[in-house]
Amino acid sequence: MTISNADPRRVIADLKELRSFSADANGAQRIAFTPLWVQVREWLTGKLAELPVETHVDAAGNLWSTLKGRSQKSLLIGGHMDSVPNGGWLDGCLNVLGGLEVMRRIHAQYGENAPMTVRLVDWADEEGARFGRSLFGSSACSGHLDLEELRTLVDKDGVGLPEALRQVGIDYEHIKDSSRELANAAAYIELHIEQGPVLLDMQLPLGVVLGTYGVERHAVNFHGQAAHSGSTPMNRRRDAFLAAGRMGQEVYAITGRHGGVSTIGSCTTKPGIVTSVVEDCRITLDQRHLDADKLAALLADARAASERFAQEGNVDVAWEHIWNIEPVLFDERLRRFCEEAILETCGNVHRLPSGPLHDAAEVARAGVPTVMMFVQSLHGISHNKIEDTKEEHLELCVAAFDRLAEKTIAAFA
Fold first, then answer.
1. Same domain for 321 and 331?
2. What pLDDT digit, counting tens, does each position of 158-196 carry?
3. Closest CA relative to residue 95, chosen from 298, 340, 356
4. What residue spans of 111-152 are helical by DSSP H?
């Protein structure tokens, strides 16, 4: 049978149409559980209605569209339509609209006789922009969601997460019921912009994602003594900021030894006035690595350094756990299919880890064989209105992703 070709230009047209009503001069505004997000969902549902699919929203707010095949076993293709505030035009939605085009091609090629059921999922609130909890919908589906932990989350306007979900028809108490959607899942594939500069620097359009970094996220609280900034000699100070400041350089040195990435993303001081030595300094630390042992070493060395700097500065230190997730390695068989699809499309390929988190990691944690494909990001920038990818690379990624889907169907049907 001759394989019908996906139409990458149609995907680009869909992306531009989406941008026309879901972005402003500052970038994309598709924040999850907001009226505009609901409008975006309605637009997507209209596109899906052009195919003979069954579409519904699950208990966690994830949108599923099913193109039935001869086998009940299903290939899942996923992404997310939500964005961060002032976000880019491709982050998340390229995944969904690329998957929609794959479904169009499969229907055009096989009609109602596809070897395998194909399901497209738009995960709810991948970004966590409103309530601070990334991967909401996919975590609910995978079972890795703590209902009590999330129950007290509120947005900047004081609206609680359960109430925001109720406003869009989701019952917070039953969100984990979404796990039933994975019952017949045989494989999961996801296309995404890289969001970083690796492929750009290598001048390669596409890459195979090895897996997603594990993450350790903590707050480090140094406590000293407030004192007058004019009358307190330097050798008598118990300056919490001095210990925290030393941590900044040391975190880079620790990461240089073990690899991965580490970031001190915020620093808050009290009393926070120019005429007082800092009594309390709270910094947030984010550490990521694809190797679990090296991630543990990053964390252990950072803890030891904080205690050393606290002792040297005659201050106290306490750690506060925020969140963590283990590294997730993707399925080797699917990684091989992904590599073959890229080589057949553009002749060159690179394997790289993902520093950002993705819904694919939650699906893999649920035991479904998973892989991701990256396409180059111009500037190496995402979560920003300047986020972009060359149209020729968008065309290549849709073509390669379609090949990946076909290889996966042939192997898993």
1. no
2. 999 999 999 999 999 999 999 999 999 999 999 999 999
3. 356
4. 136-142, 147-151
